[in-house]
Queue: 4 jobs
Job 1
Amino acid sequence: MDTATRTVAVVLAGGVGARLGAGRPKQLLEVGGRPILAHAVAAFDGHPDVAEVLVVMAAGHVREAAALTAPFRKVTGVIEGGATRTASTAAALAALADRPDGTRVLFHDAARPFVDRAVIDRTLAALEDHDAVAVGVPASDTIVAVRDGLVADMPPRSTLVRFQTPQGFRLGTVRKAYELALADPDLVATDDCGVVHRYLPDVPIRVVEGSEHNLKVTHPLDVALAEHIAEQIAANPPENT
């Protein structure tokens, strides 16, 4: 693979996991006998089409994350993230400033330990024809918009998906979106596709199928669910890993 189509996976571990109440970054907690961060990094380190992995870690924990990820051969750096998801992505983009615009970059939440190869495959395949790709699963609940405690809108459930990660981009596209976003004093964003959608509205964002196993560990109950998934995977390991 030439440098123009090189794939870099960015594992975003900048959060501190306040909602989990564990007293330390949730990505350092163990599930299935392994830190959540290690699970996430391993998924990309073991993927044949990922050339390198960059870890963006919460302030004060960079050294610990570097030691944890040292055994992974594709990890080329562990850098300090920002106070928000947007700031952590911006830090990663700064670290990739010398890479060509055609580079494929995958942004993944470190708190999603069980992303599988099939999801990564679908994301990379979609990047062949699109500059921005999201991963999603169909909404199983009825989702409503609420204003002042009253139902304001009820979009058809068939049109709704729940976003997961990775989210994939051509580097030049997400780089341009963030240049515009960071110049906006009213910037509010929770994910990278949201930034592209808002600041580069003419760029189509392709949505590919995610996985129910690809959960995000956010609340205490999620830890128990993650342990259960880890047990399932250990008992029935994927054939392609």
Note: The longest strand covers residues 161-170.
Job 2
Amino acid sequence: MTNDARGMLDGRVALITGASSGIGAAAARLFAAEGAAVVVTARRADRLQELVDGIRAAGGRALAAAGDVTVPQDAERAVAAAVETFGRLDAAFNNAGYATAGALLHEVDDADYARTMDVNVRGVWNCMRHQLPAMLASGVPGAVVNTSSVAGTVATGASAAYVAAKHAVIGLTKAAAAEYGARGIRVNALVVGNTMTEMMEQVLDRDPELEGAFLARPVQKRMADAEEVAQAAAWLCSERSSFVTGAAVPVDGGWTAT
């Protein structure tokens, strides 16, 4: 834990979704180490509290606000918790996601399609609807980062529903960037490549043959560590990226370069 006042998120208040594991948990620890007060949300309250306890033990500021991003009231409550506890909201990393793979389009059942769209698209929508007004009210520059995927730019072997959902995240990001840029809020997306997270482990457990396909395309023939993605999110949430908005930023080991 650093107490360096020059941390790139020093003094900022950030909300991170999907924070109970993987990229979200790594981002929470990194954002706090870079000086931010963090509010973390996900469905698993026990995991969130363990994360918050660890951040506080290291000298950081953190608060758990358990909830489901697909429920508008939960998204509103997480934003309210940030404002009530830390005074405002400066940054948000909308990272909660749900992935499916290994099924052809006509084989994806209605429940998987609905869950994929609800978490990845409606979840980002619900969160931004409450995050953006809170940032406007604070009167300071705001930043939102949404987690998309290489599946948001090309078909990857993930399900057609996931590819469609992650394309939609980039569309929402660009629309919000255009609408709120003149009011001091930047909105960007991460185009995330293969990352070893709990969700990736679940996908590979269901279909181990996908690992070879996932690693065949990128320039860097490996999985990313969650913190590597978190570093990009932290930069985009900081004023060090002050002239970046409406972008889909690759963090993909070169997947989209070839």
Note: The two ends are 38 Å apart (CA to CA).
Job 3
Amino acid sequence: MGKEIITMGSINQDIFVNTNVYPKHGETVWVQSVNNQPGGKGANQAIALSKIGNQVKFIGAVGQDSQGKNMVENLKNYDVNTKYISVKDDLNTGTFIVILDENGENTMLGTLGANNHLSEDDIQRAFENTDAEYFLLQLETNKEAIQKALEIANQKNIKIVLDPAPADGYHEEFLEFAHIVTPNQQEAELISGVKVKDKESAEVAAKVIKSKGANIVIVKLGEQGSLLYMNNESIFVPSYKVKAVNTVGAGDVFAAAMTVFLNDSEDIYSAVKFASAASAIKVSKAETQEAIPTYSEIVDFMNKNEK
């Protein structure tokens, strides 16, 4: 286990709706199931960092409600350091409705709630007295908090892994701080203006994204694999083929697994391959956080699926 990793992001109560049919406007549809699960991109990443094998310091916020208490207890159960999760008075914990279709693809509706009210003090305290070499974050919190966290991490020479999701939270000035940025196809298109559909277009997009400030660009192409672009060269990393059941959190697991690997090794190609295996395991199961694999599970999966 390497030095601790700092992460920052959202903590949500997710309500999953499993359906084969999307309702039309004004229509009522019977669905297969409705269930509650802890979620939030930040919480998913923090738990993945911990389960895969690292000490993790998590910066986040919940409301002063039962959902917030439950979400914090859930993080503690996964050995995540929750000291820097603040409780915001008169605000609700973030809540999202997740609609899953028969292919495991998801559509979401939600409110950020307390996630949108992280303060500079919340962030500053977490970065004191740390030996972290990596800071992992995504964009499901407020812009001011993200900007401040990026600036502090940069001042401390902590390498920043930026998962630019959700796309609604993206601002171009974030890229100048990123050591590694990991957009999916839609995010890569938003950032670069290039329609991303295959390896060739992913490389074009990656070059544009790198020109905006990031050192290393990894464009995730779903079941096709990932395009790694660095030092003016591109390498394609194939995906592991599995039956997708629930894609929620796949990008979170990818980013976390890669960061854990890099915390002990500078082999970026192997880190992306490791992350691809981790996300493949995740999407093959119905749960979100419970489905996040451990380090040994990822290694076993890779050994069984080597080509």
Note: The first strand starts at residue 5 and ends at 8.
Job 4
Amino acid sequence: MKLCIVGFLFAFSACFSSLALAQTTQEYSAVQNVSADAAGHIKVETLTNIEPNNSYDWHIHSYWENRYVTEGRDNLANKGITSVSTELNYENFIIIPWFAKGINTDYSEVNLNIIYATVLSKNLELLSGYSAIASREESSNAYDNEVSLELIYSFAQQVQLISSLYYSFDAQGAFLDVALNKHYQLTPVLQLDFKTSVGFNTGYVADGHNGANHVQFSTNLSYSVIKNMQLYAYSNYSFAINKDSNRYADDELLQDVFWAGLGLSYQYR
């Protein structure tokens, strides 16, 4: 089953990437801005109009969060995390090194993300990626390699349906996240996003239960301080689904949890 998931990831990526190159690259060559969020996962940053993009740009991001929550789990037991990442975009390729450090805890993590982004049609985009991950906690080191696929379908009125699938070679399992995002441009410099997502575990959290995992609600407010600089303030609430810590050790970290954060982004063109 797990080998089938890996095969599906690569076959799906190759199929759609070749289709896009053959049919749509000339007409739709730009993609929406993406970055690594405070948990190191790839996220869509802003909605943009599709237009030719034959140059490169470079971003730098920094985040602070009062908890480090991924897959609905409070990984550092109420402790916060800070992170910084850089993002180099050239046409359809994106490289994002990401570094994070725990607050008041001996935890650090480094990710290197390499992404190929393709516009399949006017409303549909595909991101396929590879991530090398190294983490350290209390003198214990861990390493992993992941592949990921993200499909983004944009509706009218700036609504997106986002499906993210990532596979861990270390855990030999996958995690699926399906989200609906609504974007509001409140003023020329102020924008608001609401996101609702549902997560499904299939061996990615090795000692967690499989199936429906959590529901998460997120709110993000961003303010353009100057032309290429944005300040973020965001909050999240995650509800645990089917938690069973008596049978699954990693379900102990699966909680109904609220957390918030601040971020700063600067873009060079």
Note: The radius of gyration is 18 Å.
